[in-house]
Amino acid sequence: MKINVCTLLLATSLFATPASRATDLPHIAKSAVGGQLIVDGKPFLMLGGELGNSSAGTAAQADTILPCMAQLHVNTVLMPVAWEQLEPVEGQFDTSILDHWIDVAREQHIHLVLLWFGSWKNAFSNYAPAWVKQDTKRFPRAISVDGTDTEILSTLAPETVQADSRAYSHLLAHVRDKDADQQTVLMVQVENEVGYLGRGRDRSAIANKQFEGAVPATLVHQLQERSTALSPELASHFNPRGRSWKEVFGDAADEVFMAWNYASYIEQVTAAGKRAYALPMYVNAQLPAPAERAGEYPSGGPHPYYLEVYRAAAPSIDLYSPDIYWPNFEYWVQRYKRAGNPVFIPEARIESAPFNAFYAYGEAGAFGFCPFGIDSIEVSADHTAARPAIEQTFGALNDLSEMLIPAQAAGKTRGLVLHADSPRATQTVALGGYLFEATLSRSWPAKTLLTDDGAMTIIQSGPDEFLIAGRGLTLSFWRDPDVDERVAGIGMVEEVSRIGGKWAVVRRLNGDQTNQGRNLSLPATQVRIYRVVLYSIDRAMQH
Ligand code: DGJ
Description:
Layout: H1 5-13, E1 27-31, E2 34-39, E3 42-44, E4 46-50, H2 60-71, E5 76-82, H3 83-86, H4 96-107, E6 111-121, H5 130-133, E7 141-143, E8 149-153, H6 158-179, E9 185-192, H7 205-212, H8 217-225, H9 232-235, H10 245-249, H11 253-276, E10 281-286, H12 307-313, E11 319-324, H13 329-336, E12 344-348, H14 353-362, E13 368-371, H15 389-409, E14 413-419, E15 426-431, E16 434-440, E17 453-462, E18 465-471, E19 473-479, E20 487-499, E21 502-509, E22 520-521, E23 528-537
Parallel strand pairs: 4-5, 4-13, 5-6, 6-9, 9-10, 10-11, 11-12, 12-13
Antiparallel strand pairs: 1-2, 2-3, 7-8, 14-17, 15-16, 16-19, 17-18, 18-23, 19-22, 20-21, 20-23
Helix pairs in contact: 1-2, 2-4, 6-11, 8-12, 11-12, 14-15
Bound molecules: (2R,3S,4R,5S)-2-(hydroxymethyl)piperidine-3,4,5-triol.
(2R,3S,4R,5S)-2-(hydroxymethyl)piperidine-3,4,5-triol is lined by residues 53, 122, 192-193, 323, 347, 372.
């Protein structure tokens, strides 16, 4: 039976008590290893999901989508807010769609992150209102290398940045008035995957003039000040003794020039929004596909290469985030895991999200991870039907969140993800004096692969005790030789589950289920949580 269970959930939740008045505004607490999102005075683990681009263009869509999100254990929905719908006529604002989404989100105990699709979305400017798009004199476009107008608003147009800032600031002021007490809205993304598409850079007259002129002294100065933080790509091009963009940034000049101009524009929009309501604000990057050149991917976006250029131009931006659709998920996460930049992944490929989430929260200490197109997942009313993979993953992480959040901050979590085509068949992580060696689960005795994907998050919960959540992996445990030369063994394995808010032991694993005390096998297609107690003995005692 596949009826819309989500509508039923909506009906029952209409009587839910609204959240009580929150004290502080949501904010980012930065640390040397990244940081946390603080909501109502406490660190918040965002189990997020970003909606498809056309999923929040009407108020009524909230009624069907948000109850389904709650069932998937999504606690925060990232939803577009389109400039063209907010300000269809210049100076006239309509917030009715957003207001309804906020109301329904509250009923469902879901938070929102707003995606400000203003001047740019995926490089282009199709979310700008018609009155902006039609008036190329007031709101000029970037010009391509062959001299034609692009579909991309110029970063160097004073009226455009003013209009965008005014609309954005109106949006934030409205959210403040409606939501400052309850804080359903936690953060805002400013623009979306900005950058110039096309060869080189914007070739408008003003851009050409600036490009030939001197690089702003403040940029050169800040890059010098933060020389140890520069990416290898920026450091290898940066020549502070030059004057023009070409002299200072060599072959990277076009891209750095665009990065500076996008960041400077975004700073004005962001600062205007923050003056109205100072929620955390971030920008997201469309990452290069393998072998793509700048301009084939949006050139001048907040890529890890030129983040220090963004930081110099846009101090109001709280964090920089990757949208990860490429297979090398771990590489891109690690490029954004930098001092003062908490890991937050606003968009991730939905097919691999149920696995990559374990890596993001466990290994990278992410405060948020959000599969894109989350509303495309079919939610069934039939409770005996297989639960969607992301529901299982988020369900387990939600159960663990009280332990996961402090463990992340203390560096006591690890995670990994393995695929049948991973470069290595075995991956090992170290935690609490032990090594956790993982392979994909295989059948016995045929030893055929039971699954093509496996992943886990490990939380250290005591000196020799660990909570392991995941699926599809077989684990062996070793003592970490960098810690001592003892020999490790399994003391006890319990499958645990949180039922009605309380932890319960579901099974004690032994015999065949632990390969006679030698391994822990996580089920191939179901997420489970285990409490594992390990022990270590002197090597001498083994004989
Ligand atoms: C990245 C964009 O930011 C999203 O809005 C969406 O267009 C996705 N790509 C995928 O289609």
